[in-house]
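Tip: read the tokens left to right.
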């Protein structure tokens, strides 16, 4: 019986060497998904806040057209304040869409501000970039896109009648 035990002494080590890399890769994927989920929440919240800022500062005069350059400047200022040194890697696209006109006030157009944030996430764990990274996979970066739509705030003039 003693001889039999000595021959099987390395079996546990050999099995551990086969199973441990697979187990560690599974752990890394779970942790990486948590990291991506955290950064997805940040990207969604940033796109919502940027759309909110842009919708409030976009129009200078009542029932006027939104000024896209002012909106972009204000959003870039907010992006710099929020993300600091990481702001250069974050891309914010701004689009103004007309959704209709007011039947009571013909000059008043309903417009929405659509903000799309492209947020790069550095993948932290080895092996996960082969599956989770965006192209090119060698960089180990996943790009997350978040979009928010917000109606542009406009005031009515008392002279804006039919």
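Filled-in amino acids:
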């Amino acid at each position: 019986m003693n001889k039999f035990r000595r021959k099987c002494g390395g079996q546990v080590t050999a099995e551990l060497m086969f199973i441990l890399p697979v187990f560690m890769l599974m752990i890394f994927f779970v942790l990486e998904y948590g990291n991506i989920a955290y950064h997805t929440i940040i990207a969604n919240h940033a796109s919502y806040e940027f759309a909110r800022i842009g919708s409030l500062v976009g129009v200078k005069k009542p029932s006027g057209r939104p000024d896209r350059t002012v909106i972009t400047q204000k959003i870039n200022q907010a992006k710099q304040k929020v993300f600091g040194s990481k702001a250069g890697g974050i891309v914010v696209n701004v689009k103004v869409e007309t959704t209709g006109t007011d039947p009571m006030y013909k000059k008043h157009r309903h417009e929405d501000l659509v903000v799309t944030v492209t947020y790069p996430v550095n993948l932290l764990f080895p092996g996960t970039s082969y599956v989770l990274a965006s192209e090119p996979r060698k960089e180990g970066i996943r790009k997350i896109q978040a979009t928010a739509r917000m109606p542009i705030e406009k005031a009515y003039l008392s002279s804006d009648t039919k």
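The radius of gyration is 26 Å. The chain has a mean pLDDT of 85.
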